[in-house]
Every structure is written in structure tokens, then in C-alpha cells.
What does this fold into?
Amino acid sequence: MSEHTASATTRPSTRKRYKRIAYGLLGAGILALWIGIAVDRFVLGVALYWAGGLGMGLVQRFSPVELYDERDNAIERKASQNTLNVFAYLFVLGAPGGLALHESGVVTLSGEFYGAMLTLFGVYVVFGVSIFYYKRTA
It folds into this structure.
């Protein structure tokens, strides 16, 4: 009689296993941060969050296999493009629209509005500088 062995299709690949470990460490760090906030131990929560992020980085750096391939890069590129497009519409329509409504007296804008618009502006400045840099160096 032969021993029962798990088929190759049911065992997770080595790459998938290391990805699960990496994301598990990050997830544990995020959970520790939330728990630390909930029990009023913010500094401990932040330390554990950083430890989880560092652990994820170490797994990604020192795993014996490449964790990401061309398919992962294509998915990330599409997701990044979609995210930038959504926030571009929010910025391009939201900033002047909010300011126009504020000036006409319809709404009173809080400091959070200006902070959000400044943050979106900063994201697109960094994006533009990155595009410029990589076009010059490619």
C-alpha cells in the first residue's frame, strides 16, 4: 500500500506561503495597533505595528523565492492608475467646487477640507516628479 500524499494542487506554493506569512505579519501589526489604541497603549501599539511591518519587509527581502511576478506588477499598475484617477477627479472637481460653494455662502469649509486638498495636491506633485525622473533615467 502506498502512503497518502497531498496533491500538488492542494498544497500552497512556496511563494504563496511566504506571501501569507508576510501579509500575516503586517495584519498582526495592524491589529496590535488597533488593540493598543483601544486599551490606551498607543506607543506599544505603534511599536508592534512597526514590528509587523518590519517583519513583512524582512520576509519579502530574505525569502528564498521571488514573491511577486509580472502578473502582480500588472495588477498593481492597474490598481494604482485607478486610484490616481479617482483622486484626480476628487481633487479637480472638489477643490474648485468646494471653494465656489464656500465663497457663495452655501457651505462653510473646515480646516480638514483644506488639509485634504493640500494632501491631494502633494500626492500629484510627487507623482509628477516621479514620472519626470523615471522618464529621464529610463
User: Anything to note?
Assistant: Helices lie at 14-38, 42-62, 70-103, 111-137.
